[in-house]
Amino acid sequence: MRPAPDSNAIQSRRHWFCGMAGGGLLLRPGRASRSADTDRPKLPHYRDHTKLLVVRDPEGREFAVGDAVDWSVRRAHILEHFQEVAGPVPGGERRVLVHIQEVERFERDGLRYRRIRYAAEPGNDVPAWVVEGIDDGRRRRRGILALHQTTRIGKDEPAGLGGSPALHYGSELAACGFLVVCPDYPGFGENVTDPYRLGYASATMKGIWNHSRALDVLQALLGDPRARLGVIGHSLGGHNGLFLGLFDERAAALVSSCGFNALAHYRGGQIAGWAHAGYLPRLRAEYGLDLGRVPFDFPELLGAWAPRPVFLNAPVADENFAVEGVRVCVEAARPVYRLYGAEAELVVHHPEAGHEFPAEVRRAAYRFLAERLGGFD
Questions:
Q1: Residue 360's CB: how many other CB atoms inside 10 A?
Q2: Would the pLDDT of 28 be above 90?
């Protein structure tokens, strides 16, 4: 690393960095669009995706990240590099008014279920369950977006209507006093949307947009645009929650179970599993599955959540996301949390289990969400 420049140089580079960051980098959906200016400075390349507290200028000169202002620039670079693979985050061109159509309603085991479809963008809606406790309305509630794993039944599993009882975290959180929305990811449950026919570069980016609109739904149902909202998911849902929070800071806390690891540790660096149409096909089409060319990695994405609270369930025998790769992500992200004085907000559990979400870890995750968001009596 190069030595820190003098104060005049710091001001100079911050002026350039902030100018670039303000030129269209998107921190929240709908707030801005990617710049069409062909004269924008070239985005710096980072070879080491675990070395987060450094930032580069267009000439490749490297500087230490000394404070939150510096980190905001590196974070902006991370988001831009992720969008090189996932495609650009939509802006106002896809935003429509919140519209919720109720399809079905019933009560079961002390919970009220509403099957809905909510508007995601013009001509496209998302099937979802809304789950809440049957009470007198006096409970203090916050909103939870519960994202399903890779399962044919999609939203039904976290809603507690099928699949593994160990993954009924949506209905379990509803019983704790949270208002919960469980949507279907494209290609699962009732969601038959083809993201590519709609112009998306990846199903991942369509998921990010759908899930951001689900936060709109939660705020509308809670009747409070300032409501505290959290995200929970296992496997597919675990990384989709991580992705959402990159671009929508209303996601105020994350529980990610068996959701990701550093790419070099994913099946020994064989990342084809990330490159199919359900995820990020540009990994194959544009980067040839070559980790040396892929412009982002999961240590950076985890660091980009700082200082917001994150709870990770990373079992020691997870056959999908090897625990060594999770530890790489956590150790890379901790210095960013430390920069904010928020080290306690990055919590990791390593149960003796496989690709699972054990009951004792779920209970700890629910306490984590209650403490950070509120929601229990």
A1: 10
A2: no
